[in-house]
Amino acid sequence: MIRAEAADMSDDGVRKTPDRLRRRASRLLSQLTMRSDRLITEGLAQADARKWHYAVLASLQEFGPASQAEVSTRSGIYRSDMVGVLNELAERDLVDRTPDPDDRRRNVITISSRGRRHLRRLDKVLDSLHDDLLAPLSPAERDQFVQLLTRLLDHHTRGS
Fold it and tell me: Which has the closest alpha carbon to 139: 149, 126, 130, 152?
């Protein structure tokens, strides 16, 4: 019996989930998302971070300084939540906020040197968590899985 089957068995050895549910990609993705989210949230909390911290720092590292609105778009964080996330990061000296010289009403957000170090640490934490999440898959299967998920997500987010 494989591990997935074992997790789906009750104490008396009877399968808990009907086959027609076990065959639905949408349900499998949903179930895996819940488990993945819990694993990542708990793992990042142990590193004194949250998913949104990582998203902002990664965006700033890859694309450079940006306005709050740009960081919101790039990271997928609602604009209404962005100020709180940036406050948390700024309090820890992981980002710098400076007035935009072209528009004093806006701030430009920049990752700090401390933020870059923290991001590298979080990369290692996430690498380990993803190893746990994808443990049953070989390295080639992991790459293929990520490629397939990316293709599906790209298809369903085009034009939105």
Answer: 130
Secondary structure letter of residue 9 according to DSSP: B
Helices and strands (DSSP H and E) totals, the chain: 8, 3
What per-residue confidence (pLDDT) applies to 10? 64
CA distances from 146 to 31, 96, 108, 114 (A): 17, 33, 33, 30
**Residue with the two structure tokens 């790459």:** 143
Question: Which among 32, 29, 58 is positioned nearest to 44, based on CA atoms?
Answer: 58
Which strands sit side by side in the sheet containing 95-100, from one edge to the other? 66-67, 103-111, 95-100
Closest CA to 85 of 108, 53, 119, 116: 53
For tokens 């406050």, what's the residue? 87
Span 5-22, mean pLDDT? Answer: 70
Closest by Cα among 32, 45, 35 to 125: 45
Entry pTM? 0.83
Angstrom distance (rounded) from CA 58 to CA 78: 16
Q: Tell me the pLDDT tens digit for each residue of 110-131.
A: 999 999 999 999 999 999 999 9
Distances (CA, A) of 121 to 30, 88, 115: 29, 17, 10
